[in-house]
Design goal:
- By secondary structure, the protein is an alpha/beta fold.
- The chain has helices at 17-29, 63-73, 96-102, 120-132, 141-150, 198-206, 225-231, 234-245, 261-269, 287-294, 305-310, 324-336, 338-351, 357-377; strands at 3-9, 35-43, 54-59, 78-83, 107-111, 135-138, 158-160, 185-189, 216-220, 252-255, 273-276, 299-302, 316-319.
- It has two domains: 3-164 and 356-377, Rossmann fold (3-Layer(aba) Sandwich), CATH 3.40.50.2000; 185-355, Glycogen Phosphorylase B (Rossmann fold, 3-Layer(aba) Sandwich).
- It is built from 14 helices and 13 strands.
- Helix 11 links the parallel strand 12 and strand 13 (316-319).
- It is globular, with a radius of gyration of 21 Å.
- The two termini are 19 Å apart.
- Mean pLDDT is 93; it is low at 170-180.
Length: 378
């Protein structure tokens, strides 16, 4: 029997991790002749609909668009609603609450952020979101633990389903680090903006000058659209000035091109080490981290919760935040010890199957089926 999935989220052509996540989940869930996927796209201002899969757009502060979106969702069998700060209107995104109130079908809410120290109103909104949902998904144990310790919620509703990663074809699959000509390539990718910690990675490169050949650091990704709108290219320009000041122009490369999934897979394959020098100590979900591990790449990451949890198997090294020396030591260790890097790569590759989108989608499909069956029985 065909299942009609409804999705509430930002969605391409919007450029953000939430939009990419939902597009990938939808693609993995919607099988030919077996299911449908209808998207209610979250937007700040009215826009033209980008494709047939987008059946409605929920505009911040627009009650009429809310009612239209809810009507489309109620024509589905189950709704998968993404929750992230800044994508819903109202104080602390409280416009999600009337959306959930209007749903007459089972609802899965996916939590992308669980704050350690929310304001009282942020806590109130998230607790209400969980209360109104039929099921809640966190992507890490760390996020579930935060719900348990910091919020009054029914943990029986909570399932842990990992963030998905794209499948790589045999021509783009990873394997052990290549170190092709003796020069290793370190890669950081994703939308650029303050908080990414790229400055610490650049400072770390300055501490690796003695290596021969010196490694290459590739910083790939466009500036986040909201950062671009608010601050222009100030962050990228500051990083480029830092590179020139440290005399690293021949070793640090900025690549601001947009890449589709295939081109990104080739870029990731070209790397020997993935570096995630993020500033956040709260980040419980990182799509880039999942993709790096699924690609079989050794990772050096700051000690944010998702990295601490996922890399505990030995797939990478976690270091202190804002500590370029610690980053440099970790990078040096991997560059000069091919055996260790290879071991990490094999550990990462072993965990890849359960992180790929088809496996992740199957868990969402099972959860949705349980809710639909329970709803019919009621």
């Amino acid at each position: 029997m065909s299942t009609r999935f409804g999705f509430v989220s930002t969605f391409p052509p919007t450029q953000c991790g939430l939009a990419t996540f939902t597009a990938s989940l939808r693609q993995a869930l919607v099988l030919p002749d077996a299911s449908e996927g209808h998207v209610v796209r979250l937007v700040e201002t009215p826009e033209s609909r980008p494709g047939a899969e987008v059946v409605a757009q929920l505009v911040m502060g627009d009650r009429a668009s809310l009612h239209r979106g809810v009507a489309h969702l109620n024509a589905c069998d189950v709704a998968i609603v993404q929750h992230e700060y800044g994508v819903y209107g109202g104080r602390d995104g409280e416009e999600i609450l009337p959306l959930l109130d209007g749903l007459q079908i089972p609802c899965i809410v996916v939590l992308h952020t669980v704050l350690v120290e929310p304001t009282p109103h942020q806590r109130e909104v998230l607790e209400a979101v969980v209360a109104k949902a039929d099921a809640v998904v966190t992507m890490t144990m760390a996020a579930r633990d935060r719900l348990a310790s910091g919020y009054h919620v029914d943990l029986r509703k909570v399932s842990i389903i990992a963030h998905g990663a794209p499948e790589m074809s045999p021509t783009t699959s990873a394997g052990i680090p290549m170190f092709r000509n003796g020069q290793s390539t370190i890669l950081t990718w994703g939308l650029l903006g303050p908080g990414k910690g790229i400055e610490w990675g650049i400072d770390a490169m300055a501490e690796l000058r003695d290596l021969r050949p010196m490694p290459r650091y590739v910083i790939a990704g466009q500036t986040h659209p909201k950062v671009l709108q608010r601050e222009g290219e100030a962050y990228r320009t500051g990083l480029q000035n830092q590179v020139r000041r440290l005399g690293l122009s021949s070793s640090v490369t900025f690549d601001g091109h947009y890449r589709d999934a295939t081109a990104l897979a080739h870029l990731v394959r070209s790397a020997d080490i993935v570096l995630l020098p993020y500033d956040s100590v709260d980040q419980v979900t990182s799509g880039v981290l999942i993709e790096a591990v699924a690609a079989g790449k050794p990772v050096v990451a700051t000690r944010f919760p998702h990295a601490t949890e996922l890399l505990a198997t030995g797939a990478g090294i976690v270091v202190a935040h804002r500590d370029p020396t610690a980053i440099a030591v970790a990078l040096r260790t991997l560059i000069t010890s091919g055996d260790l890097a290879g071991q990490m790569s094999h550990i990462a590759a072993a965990s890849a199957p359960q992180l790929l989108w088809p496996a992740v989608a199957e868990q969402y499909r099972d959860l949705a089926s349980q809710l639909i069956t329970a709803s019919v029985a009621a």
